[in-house]
Structures are given as structure tokens and as C-alpha cells.
């Protein structure tokens, strides 16, 4: 088993977690800027694809590793996804979507926090609390998929965080067959996860039982190469060998969830402000 090499984020004490850097102008290399301009030109020439903000052109090309045809395809798929689930692209809609996800899958989403010293977002999940059988109706799917979409948006609030990539900690202790569904995983990857432009820095699966290891092997065929390379199984979290959910349910689950939603609103507000302010011409 591999132990996570990165230091634990400050949000282990959630109230002490720092906010992101609010400066919307971040350095791009000449190549990164050229790739974003190439994508902008391709999208503006495509009648079936709506134009993006300059910030989003950079987001797409960075997340797609400069592969312009792939970025064009992902741009169109995201446009279709937003229409399917009525994504409003506002902090308020994002918080409402995440709240719906958290209410429909209690205690599954534990924390989202930003480390400005590392320009990295950390995302904590308790997979043992997830119940795919509860996701049936359109509203159920909207809660899950829109919530996931806005989490991705929040974790790409500035260009440096996009370049660095996100770290995900998945608590797997107690996972059983009730927590897994091949049909569910296939749908979420087809609709969003397989093409969303995100850099996965590290994904740690903690305390993984055999049921989860087997399931992970089955769903690997849906994953991008970048996602696959990021996955590690681990016994501890920075030397802590307990369940990670116990680090965040303080002083109560309800207060911790409201704190998370407030933090989510801050990150999304920065994201959309950067979209308005950033220009490839600067």
C-alpha cells in the first residue's frame, strides 16, 4: 500500500482553511496561450458550438493537454450537458445543486478546500455512504450530475489550480455491493466524467476492501489515462489511519455541511469573477 506523499490540507481544521488567491490574472506560457487561441478560433468557426469566455478556453486546453480536437469535442459535449441539466453557471445554482446532492446522498461529500501555497484543491468523499440505487428520476440525476459539475468548476477557480490539478481522497472503508453500480458509473462517465477537462493530480483510495478493488478494476475502462495514472490505494492519510470522515464532522455533521456550502460559494464566486475579468489579449 502506498501512503499519500502530500501534506494534509489545512481544512482538517475546516475553519482555518484559507481562501483562494483572488487575483484573476495568472501567467500562461506562450504555448498555453497559443493553444487557447487556437481553440477559440475553432469554436468561433463552429456554428453548432456556443462561444466561451477566454478563461474557459484556457480551462479546456489545459485540461485536454493542448489537444485541440479533443478540446473542441469536450466543449460541445459540455454545452449539451449544460442544456440537459439546466446548468445556470452561477454560484447560487452551484450551491443549490451541491446542497441537493448532499441531501440525496447524506455524508458522502465531506469537504472541498484550497491550499494557496500548493495551488491545489483537495476533495474528500466517503464512498461507503453513497447509494447509486437512490439515483433514479431526472431530479435525482440533476442533483448528482449538476453537483459534480459545479465541484469541478469550483476546483478550477484560477489558472494555477487548473495547471496543478486536484487531489481527491476517497474513504472506502465499509464499501459493499450496495455502494457500486456498473450502470450508474457508465452513465456518469458518458455524460460528464470521461471528457470534463480536469487534471487529476492524485486520487487516494483509503482502506479499500476487496469489493472496491474489484469494482475499480471493472470501471477502469471508462476512465481517462490521466485519471488512471492518478489513482493510488493507501492505508493512511498523512500518517492518520482512522476514517477521514471523522476529521470533518465537527462540531456536528450539519454545521460541517453548511461550512462546506459556504466555502463552495466562495470558490464559485471567484471562478465566475475570473471568467469575467480574464482576457487572452492581456
UniProtKB/TrEMBL annotation:
It comes from Seminavis robusta. Residues 1-18 have a biased composition (Low complexity). InterPro entries: CRAL-TRIO_dom, CRAL-TRIO_dom_sf. Transmembrane segments: none annotated. Residues 143-232 form the CRAL-TRIO domain. This is CRAL-TRIO domain-containing protein. Residues 1-23 are annotated as: Disordered. SUPFAM superfamilies: CRAL/TRIO domain.
